[in-house]
Amino acid sequence: MIRLWFKSGTPWVWLNAAAVSASLIMVIGVLGLILVRGAGHFWPSEVVQFSYQETNGEIQTIIGEHVDTSITPAAMAKSSGHVMADDEDTLVQYLIKVGNRDITGTDFRWILERNIRQQQTPAELIVIERREWGNFYGRLTAVKENGNIIAEGDQAWPAVQARIDEALSVFEKIAHLEKKEVGSINYSLEQLRLKQKKLQLENRWDATAEQQMASEKAELEAEYKQYQVQLSGLYQQIRRDSLVAKTENGTEVEIPLNKVVRVFQPNTMSMFDKTVHYGVKVVEFLTDEPREANTEGGIFPAIFGTVLMVMMMSVIVTPFGVIAAVYLREYAKQGFITRLIRISVNNLAGVPSIVYGVFGLGFFVYILGGNIDHLFFPEAAPAPVFGTPGLLWASITLALLTLPVVIVSTEEGLARIPRSIREGSLALGATKLETLWLTVLPMASPAMMTGLILAVARAAGEVAPLMLVGVVKLAPTLPLDGNYPFLHLDRKFMHLGFHIYDVGFQSPNVEAARPLVYATSLLLVLVIIGLNLSAILIRNHLREKYRALEG
User: Fold this and answer.
1) Where are the alpha helices (DSSP H) in 239-387?
2) Which of 15, 82, 454, 499 could be joined to 302 by an S-S link, Cβ 3.0–4.6 Å?
3) What are 149-192's pLDDT values in tens digits?
4) What are the boundaries of each domain within the chain?
């Protein structure tokens, strides 16, 4: 009976079902972990005040957020050097985010549960999110204007909220002037410098060109001075106010409001207030630039760079992959050479991605980019333009990496189209090219989209080759801006995958960066899902459109 049962194939069906179920459980588990850890990072936690007994018997006050709990068996705790009582089975430790890194030198601290004498959540405890040095935890004591106290005690809280709103408004104006207006002028001045050098190299630099160049430069410098006057006034205004806060040990610290992002009292916030705060933090994460070595702020440049690179890669890889597949299936003579090419294409799909990165750096960047600089941008020498890693070379490298996937998928789609359709088109008087362009390729478009979906899924998550051909830790400007030619293919860019690697493994503050790793991972998954869903919707639409013809 058992032998017949095995011969029937039923055990293998159940085995396959179990394997699929286990895989789904693991995938759902990983996504659930990323979702909980990533999305929960932005929820405002209570600030706890601990009365803690140090090893020397001294009672100390500790203020911070309870981040994590570690439970260690007694045997392991003793082997690690902890003194354990006979009735203790486990050693419980709390990880507290104490902040105030500029004062204490660290953001986090482990404390023993058994040494906690008392813990409270006083309403007056505040959290100050700063542009530098991370969070500050303590109590607000006063608000100053030009060094003079204007509010203290109970009046300090409403005063600091009003002043912070004003400071943030001024900070946004400064950021706009520096990055948009002044940045545009600096870019124009650099273009004028390159234009002058180019004219000199071509022996076309004369008095007329010099006069015209001087006039344009004078206009830009006059505009620059106007913005400098505005910036000077705004900086004077934003440096006017400051707040005074007290740490857990009674030390008073004066913090300029131009260094503050927000101040809030999490212990007094209602559920509605926390929800609003959560929404603001999520929007900030999606739209702001990173700060504090990428461990604070947002990741908009990384989102923008990832999406733009994937879109450019898709535009490059699709026509080349389709043309190669059409040639192999429709035009090439089916023989040994064609079979060898197909085997080579399939093998290319298994080449490690870092190999593509090395090839992209050596061929695209140094050889192709260096020759482009020599031929078209001699005035920029010795500084490279395209002879350095950038958006264009990263997109082409990933297009080369994903090209085998598109070729194989498209060729399989072409093979599924009945020969009768081709013959019917030719019998009606259409040429082979017209048959291919108007009949065969539209019917094979769902397969092309399948290849593109697979290519996007792989390209969006690749990191190793991008580290060599264009991705950087922090890009000063986006590849797309308001300066001509608007899309700057030579610029370096940020990428979500590399951002995860950098924050998770290269950050000087690992504990502070860990929640951001989960949040960025969640966002990368969502970006890939969004790109794939868009391609899947297009593919399904095309499949329904041409299903009748296939039948």
Assistant:
1) 271-287, 300-326, 336-348, 353-359, 370-376
2) 499
3) 898 888 888 888 888 988 888 888 998 898 888 989 999 999 99
4) 47-121, 139-274, 312-412+450-531
